[in-house]
Design a protein that fits this description.
heterodimer; A: alpha/beta; six-stranded mixed sheet; 6 strands; 35% helix; B: Rossmann fold; Rossmann fold; seven-stranded mixed sheet; five-stranded mixed sheet; 14 strands
Chain lengths: 178, 355
């Protein structure tokens, strides 16, 4: 079983972090994986995307051109990548930032108002992790069990105070119906 | 069992270097390899080593020359434009028979170029970017694991043969994260009786220099050095043979291109086309023998060199195969990466008609 994931949005939305979370969870589950950022000169702004492959076999090319799952956090990325999702694949979109809906009938689409939910919960920077929670629920590509351990690993020492907020965001996404 | 960790390729180089006994790092930041310098800056002081951000790439390589002369393991890293600046120093290292590691995480060129991955410094790395008759050992990692393993290997080979070694990576392998097991145990440090590390008034002083105005003697040195290179070529070739047993199409690719090629090979085999891969791990010495042997096989229709350049390694594939079979090129340049589909199309064509 191989899952090719493309996460895309603006720089600063936590696209790379959400991808790293999935990759690290995969590592702790003993999966084969790769994590590849599109890197640019800037820290914020511009477009950011991230390719994650989770597999039971060695990963060949780490470059995702035809994703099984597209997690998308802005309209330009939605327009650019919607058509690249494989038939039978999935889009998880932040519907606060993307009002458009996909017209494709051969894929599953989930619209999560992640940015609004994050704002309402007082954790405005964690819409990315709400979408990651939805990803776990809808794909099962990584397991919910062991989530705390993964979070402790990937949240840097000086940001450990963000642990609870990250977990809250993941849960909100995991439990979101719709 | 050794611990599996998730790391960027660039970080794996840095950690592996320190574990391999390299306690001296000199460099100057440039995308896409700055994580190496950042990791060294953070880590070296805690491990009793030296990190120094030099005023330029040229200063950094000459600091490397100094430490290498003292017999300690030392490295620098940069990306394409920065590595061009280091060429004079690399030639001096080769001329003075000094071991050191130079890492090039390549980006698109020429000139300042871009910051996306490339393999267009192949000529510079393997044919000697600096002046004079010399070679470096050039290792080409294709995964984060190999970033770690080949860093360690490069130090060992450089010491063994008293010559500079280069890790020729690219922006993709540098920036990506994969599970990696880092080298453990004692580094393989050898005695260096030639080092200029103080005589303690007990021996004649050692001289490290590349200047030699005695012309016949300089010629002799060159011939001696090439005898050493012949030994390296005989003993140190590394490559991966992937599904070559029954192959009718042989892809030759290294680094990130080899991984794209493997996807294409899997797709081709699903269609019943027997494709295989020879992946050079050492670019110098180049794996001439397996390519020559493949060219002799009656079932082999030809070679496809897959590169992130305008076609550089393809010249070595042509030489090694003596052009006994056709050699085609699938390439992208300037920071673009060939897709598995582009490679697959070329495989189909070589195997006999578009299916």
């Amino acid at each position: 079983m191989t899952t090719q994931i493309l996460l895309a949005g603006f720089g600063g939305q936590g696209i790379l972090f959400a991808g790293k979370f999935m990759a690290y969870k995969g590592l702790l589950e003993g999966r084969q994986l790769s994590w590849l950022p599109s890197y640019g000169p800037e820290m914020r702004g511009g477009t950011a995307n991230c390719n994650v492959i989770l597999s039971d076999e060695p990963v060949g090319s780490p470059i995702v051109t035809d994703p099984d799952v597209l997690i998308v956090m802005n309209l330009p990325s939605f327009d650019k990548y919607e058509s690249t999702v494989v038939p039978g694949g999935m889009i998880i979109a932040d519907s606060t930032l993307i009002e458009k809906k996909s017209e494709r009938t051969d894929i599953k689409c989930f619209y999560v108002p992640a940015t609004k939910m994050a704002n309402d919960m007082g954790i405005p920077t964690l819409a990315n992790m709400i979408l990651a929670g939805k990803f776990i629920r809808e794909t099962g590509a990584i397991k919910w069990e062991g989530m705390e351990d993964t979070l402790h690993h990937i949240i840097s020492a000086r940001h450990q105070d963000m642990f609870d907020a990250n977990l809250k965001a993941l849960k909100a996404g995991y439990e979101y119906e719709g | 069992m050794a611990e599996v960790v998730l790391m960027k390729g660039n970080e794996a180089i840095a950690e592996s270097a320190i574990r391999s006994g390299c306690l001296y790092y000199f460099g100057y930041p440039i995308t896409p390899q700055t994580e190496i310098a950042a990791y060294m800056a953070k880590t070296m002081p805690k491990r009793g080593g030296v990190f120094l951000q030099a005023e330029s790439e040229i200063a950094a390589i000459n600091m490397v020359y100094g430490v290498a002369g003292s017999g300690k393991r030392v490295m620098t890293s940069s990306s394409s434009p920065g590595v061009s600046l280091k060429q004079e120093g690399i030639s001096y290292l080769a001329g003075s028979e000094l071991p050191a590691l130079i890492v090039n995480v390549q980006r698109g060129g020429p000139g300042l170029g871009g910051i996306q991955p490339s393999q267009s410094d192949y000529f510079q790395a393997t044919k000697g970017g600096g002046h004079g008759d010399y070679h470096m050992i050039v290792l080409a990692p294709s995964s984060v694991q190999e970033m770690a393993d080949l860093t360690s290997k490069a130090f060992d080979l450089a010491d063994k043969y008293r010559m500079p070694a280069m890790l020729l990576a690219d922006g993709t392998i540098g920036q990506m994260m994969e599970p990696v097991v880092l080298p453990e145990g004692k580094p393989n440090l050898i005695d260096k009786p030639w080092a200029a590390n103080g005589t303690l008034m007990k021996r004649k002083h050692n001289i490290i220099n590349s200047l030699n105005l005695d012309t016949p003697d300089l010629e002799r040195q060159n011939f001696e050095r090439y005898k050493k290179y012949a030994v390296v070529e005989e003993n140190e070739v590394m490559y991966e043979d992937y599904m070559m047993e029954d192959a009718e199409v042989c892809i030759v690719a290294f680094g990130i291109a080899a991984r794209v090629a493997k996807n294409a090979i899997a797709a081709a085999r699903k269609e019943g086309i027997k494709a295989g891969l020879i992946r050079p791990i050492t670019l110098w010495p180049f794996p001439k023998k397996p390519i020559a042997a493949a060219a002799e096989k009656p079932e082999l229709k030809g070679f496809i060199s897959v590169e992130l350049s305008m076609g550089q390694m393809i010249e070595d594939v042509k030489l090694a195969s003596s052009m006994k079979k056709p050699v085609e090129l699938v390439n992208r340049a300037g920071g673009m990466i060939p897709t598995p589909d582009e490679v697959l199309t070329a495989i189909r064509k070589m195997a006999g008609g578009d299916k």
